[in-house]
Amino acid sequence: xRVPIRLLSTRLLSIRPLLxxxxxxxPLHALLGAAVALLLSPVAAMATAMVPxxxxxxxxxxxxxxxxxxxxxxxxxxxxxVKLANRLLGTDLPAPVDDTAGPRxxxxxxxxxxxxxxxxxxxxxxxxxxxxxxxxxxxxxxxVWLHGxxxxxxxxxxxxxxxxxxxxxxxxxxxxxVLAWLAGxxxxxxxxxxxxxxxxxxxxxxxxxxxxxxxxxxxxxxLAQELHDSIGHTxxxxxxxxAVARQLMATDPAGxxxxxxxLEEASxxxxxxxxxxxxxxxxxxxxxxxxxxxxxxxxxxxRVRGAGTxxxxxxxxxxxxxxxxxxxxVYRIVQEGLTNALRHASRTPAEVGLRVSVTxxxxxxxxxxxxxxxxxxxxxxxxxxxxxxGLTGMGERVALLRGEFSAGPAPDGPDGxxxxxxxxxxxxxxxxxxxxx
Length: 437
Fold this sequence. Notes:
Elements (H helix, E strand, L loop, with lengths): L1 H13 L1 H4 L2 H27 L7 H15 L4 H15 L13 H44 L3 E4 L3 E4 L8 H31 L3 H46 L4 H31 L13 H10 L3 E7 L7 H21 L6 E8 L3 E10 L1 H13 L5 H10 L3 E6 L13 E10 L5
Parallel strand pairs: 3-4
Antiparallel strand pairs: 1-2, 4-5, 5-7, 6-7
Helix pairs in contact: 3-4, 3-5, 3-6, 3-7, 4-6, 5-6, 5-7, 6-7, 8-9, 8-11, 11-13
């Protein structure tokens, strides 16, 4: 029984291409070209009717070429042509870029689109005409044989005998069907070969596409950095709030409930932020919600204090006069700095100091918190491992704003070792607000 089963499997595999939609997409694309040619032919014929009969054989192809080429002028024609080629021909053409940059890009693309439409109409029309003739012959030969035989004219006179002598018409019809499909496949292969030349990107388009891709990557990296800052801060605060709630559960139920409420609110805000950023990264959409800035610091400080932190904030100056770009970046710096302060503080509750000063020429940010010597070593190792985030990310933000950034144990002085013997860690950023500052 194994041999018949293998033969049956082989036969089923042999007809699988006939059941695949990919087999017919190429000929379908050629058929669409024939439909375009059929729709434009009456327009060309109307123009041809205006000239003397002796000139019509030469005028009709010229009129058809002009009418077909005119379809390639609108920008939408190129986009539709690229989509159809990718869908039906199996090409991998990039989406057309915006050609409003000027004639250097606009008209060469439109000329190439016109050439593609003309090629599509001519090749598709020729393939469809040949396939239609072959399909007619494939249907007519067996029909004449089944009716007792006779003569049929398909480009030439063919005599078909009745009875067993005319049975050759059946394999002949099958061969004609294959040839009809090959006519469409040949047109599709020609169009597939020339599609990158006429619809693909040239050097100017590739440069514009590369610039757009670079811009999108920069935007995605920025969103990833903001997501890291936001989620990192929320997770750190939530961990501390959960620890506080656990400690107060037996002695101070009201305080425990307050800590759990803060934990719930912080987690819900983090989920909203996560859904928002991941949706943008997934769909490539530009964010529409306004980004957080220094004017949102009070809510951030309340969340930090809700985590059981002894936060002493000193904010001076008008935060609303800080440029939008600087305000957004400094908010993230403060958020990440407070997160690190909560994470690496040497004791609980953490005593964190924040100073934000806005003057006429610059903006100063300073965050301090107590650490032990062991905490300092662990923190340095931790920062070295987190390349591209944490302290490194804050330094990059400050550098982009042409500012100065430093982080490390504070020297002896007002921010030096406190009464408990712990060293204070100080994070400092100085950012100019004027080009000459």
